[in-house]
Specification:
- This is BIG2 domain-containing protein.
- It comes from Paenibacillus terrae.
- The structure is a single chain.
- With 383 residues, this protein is mainly beta.
- It contains two helices and 34 strands.
- The chain has helices spanning 9-16, 186-189, and strands at residues 18-22, 25-33, 43-48, 57-60, 63-67, 72-73, 78-84, 87-93, 96-105, 107-109, 116-118, 123-129, 142-145, 148-156, 162-169, 195-199, 204-208, 212-214, 217-221, 224-225, 231-235, 241-243, 248-251, 256-263, 266-278, 285-290, 294-296, 300-309, 312-314, 319-325, 334-340, 343-348, 358-365, 372-380.
- The protein is elongated, with a radius of gyration of 32 Å.
Length: 383
């Protein structure tokens, strides 16, 4: 495009212009590739009848661009060079995480000669819009990009509308950094979630043909039970066993299939149980133990055994309890202080050397000692 087009800019915008959003405002713009230099990033020239500024954010064809050049203004239009934002960067201010669209380059161009200037290995240049949020960026602030940590070692605010960050590779801190989601220091200010899903009937259960079995499933977060978790149930073979989204299993054919329960919003957290469809009239007992999986030294907690027959809880059976160290060492780092029916109270020992070790609580069915269940109880220091 040349300046001879200026008198006809309205016509060209109307006939050839494409819909863009400039800082969120819908506009028409003329876009062409910037082909005068070989660039690592996707660069384009934008011309619009409305004002453009260095640092403006342009949304074009489902991509986001940052105007990185000075803007050429004429009476009829404005023209500038824009680069595609190829990364989203999260910066963390004491637990407040903000995401920014950024142009990230491992090399740049000399403005005087047009030559490529290679940056030292492990260094990158990050260009961001200059706004109220980015003005709070400070030296030594860390962020992640493609699961790699970077530290800001230089900040250039000399170009109006743009902030440029010189960054270098940093060391990873797995205790605080959410590497998977590219957020530095996330767990320094947030509680990391550790989800688990538990099917109380164990790893295998029996369901009578043409009968039903309600699965009892609990979800925990950092060992604490989640109230009313959203769970999705899937049968490996609905012609053998079917399952509804309340966990009700029905036996269809005298075969075997598996049921998988998944946390709906965290589908990688799952548990599977094998379901055998059997004739009615036979017993098939199983035991599940409920109670805290972590116990602090010197403190007590209660545990309850739930007994199932074909996966349905029954109350005419009882268990005997026993306690041992997980590593089978002696003396035992805890004791059973009370036992009433199918419940028992466990008290952890007071030795500080028990920290991060574990007890194993075992429930044995009185009527059939071959039926047992175990629960691991991790020990932690009180302080």
């Amino acid at each position: 495009m040349t300046r001879s087009l200026e008198p006809m800019i309205d016509f060209f915008l109307r006939e050839k212009g494409e819909l863009v959003h400039i800082n969120g405002v819908r506009q028409l713009g003329l876009i062409r590739d910037a082909t005068n230099n070989i660039q690592m990033t996707d660069e384009k020239i934008i011309r619009a009848a409305t004002p453009l500024h260095t640092g403006d954010i342009v949304d074009y064809r489902d991509e986001r661009y940052l105007i990185t050049s000075q803007v050429d203004r004429n009476e009829q239009s404005c023209r500038g060079r824009m680069k595609k934002c190829n990364q989203r960067v999260a910066l963390n201010w004491n637990g407040q995480v903000k995401w920014f669209d950024a142009v990230v380059e491992a090399r740049t161009f000399s403005t005087e000669t047009g030559k490529v200037i290679s940056m030292p290995e492990g260094n990158i240049l990050v260009s961001l819009q200059d706004n109220a949020d980015t003005r709070g960026i400070t030296l030594s602030q860390r962020f992640y990009m493609t699961h790699q940590p970077f530290k800001i070692v230089g900040i250039d605010r000399t170009m109006n509308g743009i902030i440029q960050l010189s960054c270098t590779l940093d060391s990873m801190n797995t205790a605080y950094d959410d590497v998977e989601h590219n957020i530095a220091d996330r767990w320094k200010y947030e509680i990391a979630h550790t989800y688990a899903l538990h099917i109380h009937q164990g790893t295998i259960a029996h369901v009578p043909i043409n009968g039903t079995l309600p699965l009892k499933v609990t979800a925990t977060d950092n060992g604490n039970e989640v109230a009313n978790p959203a769970i999705t149930y899937i049968s490996s073979d609905p012609n053998v066993v079917s399952v509804d989204q309340q966990g009700q299993v029905m036996g269809i054919a005298l075969e075997q299939a598996s049921i998988t329960a998944k946390l709906t919003y965290h589908p990688t957290i799952l548990s599977t149980i094998e379901m055998r469809v059997v004739e009615t009239g036979t017993h098939n007992y199983s035991i599940a133990i409920t109670g805290n999986s972590v116990l602090k030294t010197g403190q007590s907690a209660s545990y309850v055994s739930h007994i199932y027959d074909h996966g349905v809880e029954v109350f005419d059976q009882s268990v005997e309890w026993s306690l041992r160290n997980q590593d089978d060492s002696t003396p035992i780092m805890g004791s059973m202080t009370a036992s009433t029916g199918n419940s028992v109270t466990i008290k952890a020992g007071s030795s500080s050397g028990a920290n991060n070790k574990a007890l194993v609580l075992t429930a044995t069915l009185v009527s059939d000692p071959s039926i047992t269940a175990e629960k691991n109880i991790r020990l932690k220091n009180l302080f």
